[in-house]
Amino acid sequence: MAKKKKGDSSQGLKNVEETLTKTEQFLEQNYKLLIYVLGVIVVLVGLFWLFRMYLVKRNNEAQSQMYQAERYLEIDSLNLALYGDGNYLGFLDISEDYKFTKAGNLARYSAGICFLHLGQYEDAIDMLEKYSKKDKLIGSLAIGATGDAWVEMRDIDKGITKYIEAAEYADNEFNTPIFLMKAGELYELEGSFDKALEIYERIQSEYPQSTEGSSIEKYIARVKLLIY
């Protein structure tokens, strides 16, 4: 093994010393700036955690308000569920007053469902589209409910589009075949039998164990007769 020369070691130490000196000079020259930046970071981190704690508190408040609104929805007292009863807020006020919370977001979905059942389809679409679809299951239901509203307003093409979007968004054994089935039936109603057959055969091959899959053969047979 070759031995390092003494000169090489001296030069290395000199380089290290120069680097340390430059670092010390930088720290001395920028001391105030570095303290300021560090202080800003500490403040921002503190504000972030305070805001998170605030949202948790607000979310708990929203959930306590939503409990009664959900009870009204369960018994079809839709106006009380939407607008409240004077003691508890309804879904609309919760969605506005607690808009940055999970409960406030869920209230938008629930308000949309209330409007849908009340026959106020444009309001239903508006609320359902404002719902932030972070949850795959409820998100697909929201998209599918938007499809229901479009169908009720006689816009079949938009209804089909939303049902297929809901099916793809869900990507599960329960929601997906439900919305595919709705899209297939609308295609059939529109006379688009080839597209209906494609949808039905997809249900048969991909979701045979679903409720829709267990009875899909009769739909396939019927559409094939209409095609051929």
Question: What's a concise summary of this model?
Answer:
With 228 residues, this protein is an all-alpha fold. It contains 12 helices and no strands.
Question: Which properties best describe this structure?
Answer:
single chain; about 230 residues; mainly alpha; Serine Threonine Protein Phosphatase 5, Tetratricopeptide repeat; 2 domains; 12 helices; about 80% helix; flat; disordered N terminus
CATH H-level homologous superfamily name of the largest domain = Tetratricopeptide repeat domain
Count of discrete alpha- or pi-helical segments spanning 4 or more residues:
12
Shape: flat
CATH class of the largest domain: Mainly Alpha
Q: What's the number of extended β-strand segments?
A: 0
Beta-strand content bin: under 5%
Structural class: mainly alpha
CATH architecture of the largest domain: Alpha Horseshoe
Helix content: over 70%
* Mean pLDDT over the full residue set: 84
Number of domains: 2
Radius of gyration: 30 Å
**Low-pLDDT segments:** 1-6
First-to-last CA distance:
87 Å
Briefly note the CATH topology name of the largest domain: Serine Threonine Protein Phosphatase 5, Tetratricopeptide repeat
Main sheet makeup: none
